[in-house]
Inverse folding.
């Protein structure tokens, strides 16, 4: 048993490695469009749900109070690469709320993107919390605290009113109870709860359509998705998968990666939400899975061609010659007729 | 069906990700000590077999002709981190053979180790071929060509006499035919052939014991293993798994990682060879697998305690707090009584 192989890694004509996973595509009413593997097993969505976690930031009026536009809202939903524009905007957001960079409780790390890390190493002695890939989310959290009058100290901890609001939004959107025995700590120190892919997919369909939401939540969700799709660089960074897919999508697809091989996405015009996890946590495979699923769901559309190509990346050796590539397995390749 | 889950990744108390794989432990006569998963499916051994690929370098007399000791032989078997000592020694080896760094045909890349890359970014405009993790192997190849009077140009190509000698050594040691339809190109541009883990494990037992080898091959194999175990920094680098395991082993265990989740190892005193592959290609999981297998095979020994701990690495968040870890699955945990 176990989840099916969904992505193959080829070297020459030989399959060198295999990635298994599960994929759920649902509409907002809970109708399944695609279901592969075990979509009921709870998985940590990690950063793939930052757009949902940003609902209190918009709904509370914090984003408006500080005069934030698409870029700031996109950054609040981002796992950015720590490029100078990302770090600067995160700090600027805090300044609007009268806070300093010492308010961040996310910790610091060098960029995970080689080309960004090289520039960081040449210009910084050490990375700061503003360079943390989650600093935009944390800026949104801190601005919400400042606007609502919550003590910002300890805003990452279980039981802080900000985390209560985030958890309530997550439970409302996904419809899945967030159980304490399925709670872990995310890389940026906030609580993360394991929930089924089925619930995440339906939740993203609801984010895209507003189905079942109170009017102000539907409006906030629409605004958040629109902001991310309008400013995809601020959701990820140069060359990153989310940025490339949303740039290609020109406002028609929302995507967001999460650590350990998670991806959530939505196609608003079709009212569909997508949630997937690569069993082994590999980002390279999750990127193939989400691009392929989106390509299949948009079959016949010009955008599908770009996504189809993104689902088949080439591997080169150290001299730049093609030596292999990744591709969807037969199981994934034929899912949607 | 498929290979069993051998490594689990935990966040809090929840298994967040799972790595499958296959493991073979054999003696030099082909007796199985452990067999998990499909050990007959051909896998590319990648860099895990550099010690076998170094046999022509030692057997041809090249290593002696240029006055090389343990460090140079270890570097010829290495996937090093591109630290200054590694790059300098690779160039020094070429100089002894009257060759310049322009002879390298491996291509260049930045270090895959964050702390090394940061230093490289601060001291280099671009990495050179000497910084390629395979430059030591290529230095060994080039010195062998120079010593034997082969034209060094094209030494990486299929059909070059150097690659013929490497392939012949691989076939002799593993006993597995190297078939053209199972040939791919490695990251450093040389041919790589997929062979069963069973054959690789037995091959490493033979490297450790010399069983069935001609006397000069047995002597070369012993010398290569001894060199790697004596100079583990030159096989990998600061903080790397191979270096740490062989430092802890103090001459009692040989280990070598390969790309895409492969590991080969040997315990000479027990006459055992080990070969494994993580299905999805994850190094983090292959490192857990090899440490756990070695710990089990050395059960009751003080060294086993260190290896047992290396098989259970802790995961921390960006503030350094423990949030999870990796561990062998129950399937792997109970293999050797």
């Amino acid at each position: 048993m176990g989840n099916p192989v969904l992505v193959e890694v080829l070297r020459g004509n030989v399959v060198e490695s295999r990635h298994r996973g599960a994929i759920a595509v649902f509409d907002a009413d809970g109708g399944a469009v695609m279901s592969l593997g075990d979509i009921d097993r709870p998985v940590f969505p990690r950063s793939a749900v930052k757009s949902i976690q940003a609902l209190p930031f918009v709904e509370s009026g914090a984003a408006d109070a500080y005069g934030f536009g698409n870029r700031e809202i996109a950054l609040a939903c981002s796992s950015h690469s720590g490029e100078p524009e990302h770090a600067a905007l995160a700090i600027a957001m805090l300044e609007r709320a009268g806070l300093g960079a010492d308010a961040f409780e996310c910790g610091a790390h060098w960029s995970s993107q080689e080309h960004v890390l090289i520039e960081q190493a040449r210009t910084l002695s050490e990375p700061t919390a503003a360079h943390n890939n989650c600093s935009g989310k944390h800026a949104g959290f801190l601005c919400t605290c400042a606007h609502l009058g919550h003590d910002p100290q300890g805003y990452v901890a279980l039981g802080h009113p900000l985390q209560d609001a985030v958890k309530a939004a997550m439970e409302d959107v996904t419809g899945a109870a967030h159980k304490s025995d399925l709670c872990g700590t995310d890389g940026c120190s906030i609580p993360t709860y394991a929930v089924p892919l089925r619930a995440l997919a339906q939740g993203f369909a609801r984010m895209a359509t507003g189905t079942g939401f109170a009017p102000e939540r539907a409006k906030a969700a629409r605004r958040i998705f629109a902001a991310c799709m309008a400013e995809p660089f601020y959701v990820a960074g140069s060359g990153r998968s989310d940025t490339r897919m949303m740039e290609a999508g020109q406002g028609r697809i929302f995507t967001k990666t999460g650590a350990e091989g998670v991806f959530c996405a939505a196609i608003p015009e079709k009212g569909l939400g997508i949630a997937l996890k690569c069993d082994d946590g590999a980002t390279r495979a999750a990127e193939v899975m989400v691009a392929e699923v989106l390509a299949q769901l948009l079959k016949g559309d010009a955008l599908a061609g770009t996504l189809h190509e993104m689902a088949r990346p080439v591997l080169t050796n150290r001299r730049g010659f093609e030596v292999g590539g990744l591709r969807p397995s037969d199981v994934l390749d034929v899912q949607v007729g």
Summary: Chain B has a mean pLDDT of 97. The two ends of chain B are 25 Å apart (CA to CA). Chain B has 14 helices and twelve strands. Residues 207 and 221 of chain B are 5 Å apart (CA to CA).
